Amino acid sequence: MSTTAVSTPRTEFFQKLKRVCVPLNQLAVRSQDKTADAKEILQHVESLTELWSTQASQDDSILDDRLADYVFVPLSQVLRDRDQYPMRVVEGVIRLLRELIQHGWKVKTSAALFRQLLILLSFTIGGVPGQERKKDVPEETIIEGFKTLGALITSVDPARLKRSEIPGEDSIPALGHSVTVMIDAVTEDLPSLIQLEAVACLRAVFISTRDNSVLAQFLPGTVSGLGKRLSPPLERQTQKRVLVACLEALQLVFVNVLGDLKVRGLLRQLETATPAAEETKSEGDSESRDIELTPSWLKATAAQVKIALSAVLKLRSNESEEVQRALYRLCIALLDECHASLADSQSILVETALMLQEDDAAQSRLETSLQDLVSIYPELSNGIKSALYSWVAGLPRMMQSSNEKTKQLAIRSILRGSKLGVAMQMDSSTLDDSLADSLRDSIITLMKASKPPKVIDDLGAVDLSQPTALIRSGYTELATYSPVILGSEGQKATRNELGSLISQIGPSSLQVKLATSMLSYVRDSDEPTTQIASFWLAFQLLKSSYAQSADMDELFDFSALGETQQQDEAFQELYDFSTSVLASRSDSVEPPPWQLEALALEVTAYYATRLEEDFRPELIDVLYPVTTFLGSEKPQLRRHAITTLNILASSCGYGSVSELIVDNADYMLDSVSLRLNTFDISPASTRVLTMMIRLTGPKLVPFLEDTVQAVFAALDNYHGYPVFVEGLFDVLGEVVTQGVKSDVLLLAGGDSEPAVDHKKRGYRPQGVEGILETVGKHLARVEGSKSRAEEPFRPVPRKAWGPGREKRKEKSFVEELEAAEDDDDDEEEEKKEMEEEKEAVQTPTYQLLTRILTLTQHYLTSPTPTLRKSLLDLITTVTPALSQSEDAFLPLVNVIWPVLTTRLHDPEPFVAIAAAKALGGLCKGAGDFLGTRLRSVWGEKGQGLRAWMIKVKAEAMGQKKRTSNNGRGLIGGGGGGGGGNRSEGGGIMIPTSTASTGLLSSSIGTGGLLNLDFGSGPTTSPDNGGMKMVSSSSYTTPSGAGRFSQSTRLWEAAVGLVRDVVSYVKVEDEMFDEILELVVDVLPGQKELKDAMETVNGDAVWLGLYERGLLRGLEVKQPVMEGFGFVRVEVGGR
């Protein structure tokens, strides 16, 4: 029963095969037209393949060699005429053969069948040797052929892969041809899938073949083919997965053929045999057709393998991590399993493995590492030392390469070699000495080859007055330096590798030793590049040394060994050199290279981070030099200076740079004053002072008295140098800008006077309450005069009544009469005391601003327009602050007034605009004090303010001033003849001016019977009974010139000056009429000017607008009276 049960599935499966195999065989044997029957044959073949593969996946126990032979019978008929069938049929047959080999014949393939299939597959893939292909073979067919060939070699009995002495039974020649086909597929430019299958077949050959002599026969061609694919230039055109497969196959070939276990007998013979015996034996075996494995063969093969490896190992520069990892495994495998047989190749294998060695964290502990091999084979340490020394010596040469990857690999190799040397405790004083020189020369080479990066100056957006973020907080925008050397983006990876090498080059003692050797070049070198390279290298080494020491100090105390002392001495020497570089910036004619100064800034900042608040005494020497770099022409130095100031502030315990500078302002100001007093006219002093004042704000201004005095002295000595004078006034301008922001600007002691508001206000009716209040005040004055009349007569005191008099000792009336004779002698002394008391009220800031404003009068005639403009802006800025005290401000106005008014006629329009703004500011601060002065300069013939405004207006409007004639008023430019306006329908004349003076006199008011309604203009003035302005298109606008032209902007400044004059200064009627005549055209578009003029004389403004036709028609309200009727009157506007 069990036999029947077992045979039933097999019988069923056989019947299925039979139903397909019989028609296939008949069709293959009897077919006359192979091409016509190819489709049907292909269907049968695919059916067989599906049946076989399905059964193999379900239950392959019923599949055996007999069923495979049965299926192979029709296939052999097809294969016999394969050249007459399409390649798709051949491909289907090959695919079915692979299924038969894997699940049918397995290891029971006969020798004859094995040879036949080898020849068949090899000819199908590579063609018949010596004959041209009749048709192209598709890639899919080649892939199926290699897969079937690999399955055939893998599943065959290893006995079939040995040399046979029986004629016709030797399969090695056929296998050799197959290996040749595989090697050709690897070396030719075929798709990667074909190459991968060919490499897999090669692996199968060297795994399945147990006869070492047979493998030795295949070794040269295999190594040559794989080496060709793995060497330039083919390796650049090969996919990385093909390279990895070839490296793994090459490793398998070397280990299976030349492994120490495989050739251990030859190695013993090689150690004991004499050279003569080896030569005799080699000559005696030369006639044999096989390769005889002899010591001579092993020696010759090892030499050839070294040549092949030298080409293959160039893959270490490949960028793929998978390729590098596979190459590293190859080197480790050959050093381990072919240690004796390939002893000649140990040096290049050790060098490559050292270059490709991964970090301890990335490497698996289950894999053998180079460090493990050094422990097993101590002689490998000599190879490591030799490789490391050659790398160190050749590093400067490698840095000359244009390939950044090559540079990075060279640096990374030295790092890995030094780390392995430290781990294996391989000390070498010669290597240490050469390492320092090599690093310095390499950095010099990189600096000479690198191009300076393009730096964009974007520091204007940095607000240094804000509190800085501490370095420990992780905010690094203003606490991280940009690279000094190798700053381009393309060199970033090389710079990082170089930094890693320096930081991990060895123990802390070695880093200090190397840094100390660099200090002599830092001090004494005359070559700037050498000095910069040595400086940078020494600083980086010492930083790394401190970092390592900090980690070790947490566990151990090494102070007794003296290493800490050597470390501190080396850094102190480096810091002293840095301070000398910073201090020499303003003293030397030619400043040092900016890289040297930037490194000095970095050293200073790093020293501050180490000492923290203990660094504060050092600020006396370094703070001012560091601040001078804020005015450097190099954006890199300015950014370095900003970063350094932030680090200094955070390290020394200050919340911001402003606090740092304010707290140390005394000796910084002394340094600036000293340089000014010693005729140091470099721009650094003024720039530092300007930026320092800007950083600190109003808090520093009270300390600037001596410095401002030094600036005044410098102005006296160098007034003939416009550029330097402009720089000095930039300082004074910054003092003014910050001083006016002070909240303690005036009146530090004594009684303060309230600020006077000079703005004019229109008349407002008092009403009943106002009248009652006025009557009450009058009655109080009457009562007071009566009470004073009843008092006894007393002589008028001759001493001033002022603040503090009540504190003196009171005297009787008789004593005062006796002292009256001495009053004349004491009068001058009393005046001095009052002046001193009055001066004591002003703060130092106010006094500084006063002196600066007084000084500007002497330089407003400077030939430099920009200086004149900056001085006028300074006056505009300081005027509101100084005007709070009229007693001190008005004398200043009197001093600067003459020279300021002349600037209105400046040939540069932007200077005249600034002068107009400055005069407007004086009008706001001085008020009616300028009334007579304005009147005197208003009507000056040809040069008066009125003539200047007429000229400016004519230029802005694109036309000359129109003369007034025919008895018209000065504002009558827009009306008709006769000096008035005539209504179109009513014929009523409205007077506009007096008969002959041309001045606006009593204008029509808004009361009485006239109810004025001026339409719906855009702007309404509530002070004129509902009067409305017309649209902007109805009055004159600048023509011919753009809105932003110089003439238009100058006219706008003139209008602003007039607005300030009318708003804050009392003007006479005649001057007001002339002003109105000038600006009446633009009043509809100047609301502030219109409101100011209406405050002074609203009726005149209304009449001027009406005369120019800038108002809508008047609607006269008809009176209503019982028993009477009135005629309707309408007055048409223009």
From TrEMBL:
Region (Disordered): 781-843, 959-986
Residue ranges, compositional bias (Acidic residues): 815-830
Compositional bias segments (type: Basic and acidic residues): 781-793, 804-814
Gene3D superfamilies, per database record: Leucine-rich Repeat Variant
Matching Pfam families: TPR_TTI1_C, TPR_TTI1_N, TTI1
Regions of compositional bias (Gly residues) in chain numbering: 969-986
Occurrences of domain TTI1 C-terminal TPR (ranges): 806-934
Domain TTI1 N-terminal TPR: 14-360
Protein name: TEL2-interacting protein 1
Organism placement in taxonomy: Eukaryota, Fungi, Dikarya, Ascomycota, Pezizomycotina
